[in-house]
Design goal:
DNA_brk_join_enz, Site-specific integrase, about 70 residues, DNA binding, mainly alpha, Integrase_recombinase_N, DNA-binding
Length: about 70
C-alpha cells in the first residue's frame, strides 16, 4: 500500500482507494470490504478522472444520478 499525499489534483478515485486502505482494511469484515471495493469499481466507471478540486455539490449530485441510472427499482 502506497500512501500518497492528499492534494487537490488527486483524483477522487485515488482518494477513496487510499481512504479504504488506511481506515477500513483490517478493521471490517470481508463482506463489508467487498461492498467498499464494489463502490470503488462504480466510482472508476462514473468519475474516473474527477479531481478533488472539482468535487462539489453539482458533481456529487451527478455521481448519485449516474449511479441511480443503473440501480433504480
Amino acid at each position: 500500500m502506497v500512501i500518497n499525499t492528499i492534494n487537490e489534483e488527486m483524483s477522487f478515485c485515488e482518494y477513496y482507494s487510499q481512504w479504504v486502505d488506511v481506515y477500513k482494511e483490517g478493521a471490517i469484515r470481508e463482506v463489508t470490504m467487498k461492498k467498499y471495493k464494489l463502490t470503488q469499481a462504480w466510482l472508476r466507471k462514473l468519475i474516473p478522472d474527477l479531481k478533488l478540486s472539482e468535487f462539489d455539490r453539482v458533481s456529487y449530485q451527478k455521481l448519485i444520478n449516474g449511479y441511480a441510472e443503473h440501480h433504480e427499482h
